[in-house]
# Entry
Amino acid sequence: MMFSLGMFAMLTGTISVKAAHILSRKTDCPRCSRSIPTELVYCNFCGVNIDRGKKVHEEMH
# Structure
């Protein structure tokens, strides 16, 4: 049982480190130049679509 608990702890620790590494990848917003995670589609700060360079309300018009 101690072996399986140790393996579980090691596995969850490894997963946590890998998840933290993935989440720490950043890019700069093309409009406001703030640093944001690469997996975002829209900037948290100014609302621009990272791929298109337009704000949400501008895309709908």
